[in-house]
Task: structure prediction
Amino acid sequence: MDIHQAESLDLVFKHVAKLHKQTVHALLSGKGIYPGQPPVLRALAERDGQSQKELAEKLQITPATLTVMLGRMEKNGLVERRPDDADQRVSRVYLSAKGRLKHDELSSFMYEMEALCFANFTMEERIVFRRLLLQMYDNLVRADLKPPKPDEAQQ
Amino acid sequence: MDIHQAESLDLVFKHVAKLHKQTVHALLSGKGIYPGQPPVLRALAERDGQSQKELAEKLQITPATLTVMLGRMEKNGLVERRPDDADQRVSRVYLSAKGRLKHDELSSFMYEMEALCFANFTMEERIVFRRLLLQMYDNLVRADLKPPKPDEAQQ
DNA sequence: TCGTTATATTTAGCTGACTAACTAATAACA
DNA sequence: TGTTATTAGTTAGTCAGCTAAATATAACGA
Result:
C-alpha cells in the first residue's frame, strides 16, 4: 500500500505510528537502553516511589508487563523496589542514581524526536495537529475498550 | 502524565498511538484473529502469491518476523506456502479459502475502527489531519532511520 | 569450472505487550 | 473472631517485533 493513496484515515494513522515507533527504536538502540524503559524513567523522575500499581496505570500497561520490565531494570541497576511501610502487598519503585543519570541523558532524545517529526510544522499546524490528535484520543477513550487512567477520566 | 497538559506533540502522538493500538487489539480479540494478522491477509488479498521477501517489505517488518507469523497462520490454516518454480530459495504465500473468508469477515472491522476514531471529524478536519499525518510521515522517511519500501521512496 | 559473494528464509534469543492463573496480604463482613 | 472478598504483585504462556547467526541456493567473475 502506498500511504499517499490510502483511502482510510485510520490506515494512514497506523502507518505513521508504525514508522514513528520504528524510528524511536532505531534512535534508542544507540543509547544503551531499551525502548520501553524511557517512559518508566520519566514517570519515576516526575514522582519517585510510586507503587507498581500506580506506575502501571500511569504508563497504561498491565501490572504483569511492568513487573517483568522492572525486573530487568532492577537487574541493570536503573531502579530499586522496596516494600511499602504500611501495606506489605505494595512494592514502591525508586530511581537509582544510575537511573536518574540515564534519564538526564535521555532528555536530548525527546527534543531530537520532536524536531525530527515536526521541525517543518508551523505553529498553527502544531496547534491544529494537537487538537485533532486529542479529538481522536477522546473518541478512543469514549469507546471505552481500553480504560484510561483515573485522573484523565475526570477531565 | 495527563495527555491534555502535555507539552510535547511527540508525546501526545505516542499516547494516541498507544491507545489506538490497544483499542485495535481489544476489538480483534473478539474475532478469532491475532492483531498482526489482518495486514497480512489484506496484503495477500490484494496480491496473492507474493514471496516472503515482497510481503515483508510491503508490511514493513523483518523477514524473520514474517516467517514466524506465517508459521502460525499456516498452522491455523489461513495461508499456504509453496516454493517458487524458478528459484528454490523463494517461498510464495497464498491465502487459503479459510484465510479469504476471514479477510472478508474483517472488512467491517476496518470501517468500525474508522468510525470509532473519526466519526465526529468534519470533512475539513479529516483532510487537514490526513495532510499533517502525511507531513509527519514524510519527515520520518526523510530521517531515513527506517527505510520505507521501494515503491514509496519513488513518490 | 570453481570459488566467492549475494540472496531468501529460518532459527535462536531478547524485549514489550497481553491474558489467565496463582500467591500472599489486606479489607470487609457477619 | 473467623470467613469471604478484594487487592498487589508474580508466573507462565502467547504474540509481534527486533537482531544476529545459520543454512541453502543463486549469481558472478576469474
